[in-house]
From TrEMBL:
Superkingdom classification of source: Eukaryota
Gene3D superfamilies, per the entry: YVTN repeat-like/Quinoprotein amine dehydrogenase
Gene Ontology biological process: DNA repair; DNA-templated DNA replication; mitotic cell cycle
Chain ranges of the WDHD1 first WD40 domain: 10-321
Cellular component aspect of the GO annotation: nuclear replication fork
Protein name per its UniProtKB record: WDHD1 first WD40 domain-containing protein
InterPro entries for the chain: Quinoprotein_ADH-like_sf, WD40/YVTN_repeat-like_dom_sf, WD40_rpt, WD40_WDHD1_1st
One example GO MF annotation: chromatin binding
Provenance organism: Wuchereria bancrofti
Pfam families, sorted: WD40_WDHD1_1st (PF24817)
Coiled-coil portions: none
Length: 457
């Protein structure tokens, strides 16, 4: 499988979850983006290649919650604020001015830390979720707030581009899709779909279930076990799945769709970044993200809007990195296995035959590999050094025979398979038996001794 090219990772913020975000209004043409962690800083990045990108760090005078949304000149951040009169701290979503990061006004509060924030493309709606299981949808034009609760901590919130639906994932393993087109103050019951089993807590060792919509707002993509699932907004039935392989059990965590709507990228908990072509479902690249040989957990990712075929992402160990050349079309001549090490070993052991007759005769092929007509391996034999350039050894495989476990018997009796062996000595008693062996008690009447021995199979 073809792999993209990683840039040299750079350090940012502190260890733990980090969130990257771009302008949701799509009015920014510079390719700049924002990053936030839990250290109280918000970094404003330029839209250059990662090794040339510059950032401007702004501190908001409080602990940030790794939850941020950007729309035009406004930035919405989840943070801990303290009441000036009482000194009581509370989790708050506030609006900040983008360039100066000066707080304009608080929007809403929660009892515990914020976990996700999103703003609609029009800038009308703001959604915020918390680890206290509470979801709030705020109409920024009227100030109306709709409150809903889930059976788990809110993990991700995301509006579609047409201000029609809000998709939410939580640690109970459920996807909830809310219709936000209803009149003032009304919120119907959401469409609820199970995505995975319950997640214990929001932490780096667990999937973030960070979903995304395509630019048209018609299709929803959700990371799951072994695949990324695609849902249609009209019925919210599963349309298709994007796989690595038929036997893959990788847990996907973060996914994002390119601004052109052509490519889907998703990362696994083992640092594997996969890119598919959405229209065909073809897997284009699989790239293993490692630092010093160790895979890292990716916690946020987006497609760069001004750099061609480039992903920017951050891991939970304070690194930011980019991946480019990740949309190459895989041809039929390239291998399609995601296990790169195994495939490499296969390639080294593969023999290239130019004999047309052998390629068409199944018996000849079997014989050349050391098998008889029935498919039993008989060893590889040198026939006039015909294929000496292909095989260098002719050692037959060592067959393995599984352990034969004897049938059970009543304690104190002699098992059937031991009767002939101990028929001459009827003083032997089999006290205990299991799959590992037997414990035998023997009595010698001459000296009155009792011997206990363990016989292992």
């Amino acid at each position: 499988m073809y792999s993209g090219e990683f840039a040299e990772p750079r350090l940012l913020h502190s260890k733990g979850f980090i969130q990257l975000c771009v302008d949701k209004s799509a009015t920014d043409s510079t390719g700049s983006f924002l990053s936030v962690g839990t250290d109280g800083d918000v970094w404003i990045w330029t839209g250059d290649e990662l090794d040339e990108a510059e950032y401007y760090a702004k501190n908001i005078k409080g602990r940030t919650h790794c939850a941020i949304a950007w729309h035009g000149n406004d930035v919405y951040i989840g943070h801990t604020s303290a009441d000036n009169q009482t000194g009581i701290q509370k989790s708050t979503v506030s609006r900040f001015q983008k360039d100066s990061l000066r707080m304009i006004a608080p929007i809403t509060t929660f009892s515990l830390d914020l976990s996700s924030i999103d703003i609609s493309k029009s800038g009308k709606f703001l959604a915020a979720g918390s680890i206290d299981h509470v979801l709030k949808i705020i109409n920024l034009e009227t100030g109306d707030v709709i409150r809903a609760e889930a059976d788990g901590q809110i993990m991700c919130v995301s509006f579609n581009s047409k201000d029609e639906y809000l998709a939410v994932t939580a640690t109970d393993g459920m996807l909830r899709v809310f219709d936000i087109t209803f009149p003032k103050g009304e919120l119907p019951e959401p469409v609820t779909i199970r995505i995975c089993s319950r997640i214990v807590d929001i932490e780096p060792s667990n999937s973030k279930l960070q979903l995304c919509w395509d630019p048209s707002g018609d299709n929803l993509f959700v990371p799951a076990l072994g695949c990324v699932k695609k849902f249609d907004k009209h019925s919210f039935e599963e349309i298709t799945k994007f796989f690595i392989g038929s036997n893959s059990y990788e847990m996907f965590s973060v996914c994002c769709v390119s601004s052109c709507g052509t490519y889907l990228a998703s990362s696994t908990m083992d640092g594997l970044i996969c890119v598919w072509q959405i229209s065909t479902g073809d897997l284009l690249t699989c790239s293993k993200y490692q630092i010093n040989g160790q895979p890292k957990v990716i916690c946020t990712m987006f497609w760069h809007r001004s750099l061609r075929d480039t992903l920017f992402f951050a891991d939970t160990e304070e690194h930011i990195c980019s991946l480019n050349k990740c949309t190459r079309k895989v041809t039929s001549n390239e291998c399609n296995s995601t296990d790169l090490d195994l495939q490499c070993a296969r390639n080294k052991a593969t023999a290239n035959f130019d004999d047309d007759e052998n390629s068409q005769n199944l018996d000849s092929i079997k014989k050349s590999y050391g098998f008889d007509e029935e498919g039993h391996f008989r060893g590889i034999y040198d026939e006039g050094e015909k294929n000496s350039h292909i095989f260098t050894t002719a050692k037959p495989l060592t067959s393995y025979k599984p352990l034969v476990v004897p049938k059970a018997f009543v304690t104190g009796s002699t098992p059937e398979h031991r009767k002939q062996r101990y028929l001459v000595n009827l003083s032997l008693n089999f006290l205990k038996w299991n799959q590992y062996g037997t414990i035998i008690s023997s009595y010698n009447g001459d000296d009155g001794r009792i011997e206990v021995s363990l016989i292992l199979y």
